[in-house]
Amino acid sequence: xxxxxLIEMLHIxxxxxxATLIATxxxxxxxxxxxxxxxxxxxxxxxxVAMGVGPIRRAWLQDRESHG
Length: 68
What we know:
- The protein is mostly helical and 68 residues long.
- The chain has helices spanning 3-29, 34-66.
- The two termini are 14 Å apart.
- The model has no long low-confidence stretch (mean pLDDT 95).
């Protein structure tokens, strides 16, 4: 897989892992809000993926240009 595209995908994966870690710790530390925490986390994860689409597309186009 081309380097730029892979790096952008890794950024998304790291963002999703960070959101999961924060949500897990938050839900553990405040159980009465567990469902709300995971609801907000789901929305945040969707936003991370949505914000990553443009950079992935640009990286893919750059990789395609450089590899002919």
